[in-house]
């Protein structure tokens, strides 16, 4: 039997991979997405917290309201747990029922014409005169690696590899409510989250609590979620004695774009390409945008609209300022100065502009000074 032939094979059914395939299918090209998981909602690594801009992505058009919850504020805590409530007019974050969201994204892709092969792991790809032969899948003119920060496509094809990570852990608690459900609670603490932070948020199904710290190769030190939950219990009402209903953990890329990101007729997208903010490690919005841009670029090549030597990848951001802030956070984080500075008006202004993408408005006073 002759192997199937596609215009593009995408490895990985995450945000970036499905956005890429969706853009191709929208232009009438045959895109196949493969993913090693039989159920896209299993073993989810992403937090599923969306910035407002992510909802403008074509892939998320028609997102069922039951899968998301609006969170219009951020409450930022210093190491001593003194906090400030931040917000911007008209801006909000969205928490999600992440497993259900991933299943819906897969179904949405299929409804738009994407061929999705669940339970199909990427093993190898061989270059041919007309594209790529992907073992166990078929032949395609282009190959896209959207298989995460530990991309096997990048490994097999000799493309750039992500080499800077955070180690993250997240607990899900079903059916409970926070004392302040309309805020994304963010905790700065060198003790519990060196190089990053902890977070707690109300979701459509309950509460999620996460913690991430710098990852050092060879280190076996995991984030101390039990200690963290005990530390923040007076603020959130969560207790370390409540067993989580689900746990997810993994490495979060934070080093910025990889190089090379493409070779021949293969390209990396999303986390596999390092298209994640070095400062916040937020990758959903970047993945959706980058995946769609790659999809449109491939469509132009396939339709003959782009010259043969034209790049199929959009310009890559340098993240220079965010890389600088990442370096400073990695090397200059101390709890005592954070206790003093984090609620100071100039620092709060900067933090709010970073949180709300330069939409910072009126700054509220710290707790106790409203």
Task: Annotate the secondary structure layout.
Elements: E1 5-11, H1 15-26, E2 31-35, E3 50-51, E4 68-71, E5 73-77, E6 83-87, E7 93-96, H2 98-111, E8 115-118, E9 125-128, E10 131-134, E11 138-145, H3 152-157, E12 165-174, E13 183-187, E14 198-202, E15 206-214, H4 225-236, E16 246-253, E17 262-263, E18 266-268, H5 284-303, H6 320-331, H7 335-341, H8 345-355
Helix pairs in contact: 1-2, 1-5
Quick overview:
The chain is an alpha/beta fold. It has helices spanning 15-26, 98-111, 152-157, 225-236, 284-303, 320-331, 335-341, 345-355, and strands at residues 5-11, 31-35, 50-51, 68-71, 73-77, 83-87, 93-96, 115-118, 125-128, 131-134, 138-145, 165-174, 183-187, 198-202, 206-214, 246-253, 262-263, 266-268.
Key phrases:
single chain; 370 residues; alpha/beta; eight-stranded mixed β-sheet; 25% helix
Tally of DSSP β-strands: 18
Largest sheet: 8 strands, mixed
Classification by helices and strands: alpha/beta
Question: β content, as a range?
Answer: 25-35%
- Distance from N terminus to C terminus (CA atoms, Å) equals 72 Å
As a whole number of angstroms, the C-alpha radius of gyration is 21 Å
Low-pLDDT windows of residues: 358-370
- Shape verdict: globular
The string of secondary-structure elements, in order, is EHEEEEEEHEEEEHEEEEHEEEHHHH
Kindly report the oligomeric state of this protein. Answer: single chain
Helical proportion?
25-40%
Task: Supply the number of helical segments.
Answer: 8
Average of per-residue pLDDT values: 87
């Amino acid at each position: 039997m002759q192997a199937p032939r596609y215009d593009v094979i995408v490895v990985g059914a995450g945000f970036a991979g499905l956005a890429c395939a969706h853009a191709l299918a929208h232009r009438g090209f045959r895109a196949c997405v493969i993913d090693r998981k039989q159920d896209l909602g299993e073993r989810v690594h992403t937090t599923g917290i969306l910035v407002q801009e992510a909802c403008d992505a074509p892939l998320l058009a028609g997102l069922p309201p039951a899968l998301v919850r609006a969170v219009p504020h951020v409450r930022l805590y210093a190491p001593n747990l003194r906090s400030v409530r931040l917000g911007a007019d008209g801006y909000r974050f969205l928490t999600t029922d992440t497993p259900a969201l991933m299943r819906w994204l897969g179904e949405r892709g299929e409804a738009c014409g994407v061929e999705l092969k669940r339970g199909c792991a990427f093993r190898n790809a061989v270059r041919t005169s007309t594209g790529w032969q992907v073992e166990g899948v078929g032949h395609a003119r282009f190959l896209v690696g959207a298989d995460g920060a530990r991309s096997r496509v990048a490994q097999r094809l000799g493309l750039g590899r992500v080499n800077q990570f955070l180690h993250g852990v997240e607990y899900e608690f079903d059916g409970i409510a926070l004392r302040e459900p309309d805020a994304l609670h963010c905790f700065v603490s060198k003790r519990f989250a060196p190089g990053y932070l902890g977070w707690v948020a109300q979701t459509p199904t309950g509460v999620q609590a996460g913690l991430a710290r710098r990852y050092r190769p060879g280190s076996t030190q995991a984030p101390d979620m039990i200690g963290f939950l005990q530390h923040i219990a007076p603020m959130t009402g969560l207790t370390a004695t409540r067993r989580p209903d689900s746990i997810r953990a993994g490495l979060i890329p934070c080093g910025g774009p990889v190089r090379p990101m493409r070779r021949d007729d293969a390209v990396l997208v999303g986390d596999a390409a390092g298209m994640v903010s070095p400062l916040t490690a937020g990758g959903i919005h970047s993945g959706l945008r980058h995946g769609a841009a790659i999809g449109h670029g491939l469509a132009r090549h396939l339709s003959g609209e782009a010259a043969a030597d034209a790049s199929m990848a959009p310009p890559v951001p340098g993240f220079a300022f965010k890389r600088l802030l990442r370096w400073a956070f990695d090397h200059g984080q101390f709890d005592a100065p954070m206790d003093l500075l984090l609620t100071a008006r100039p620092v709060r202004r900067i933090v709010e502009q970073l949180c709300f993408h330069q939409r910072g408005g009126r700054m509220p006073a710290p707790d106790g000074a409203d």
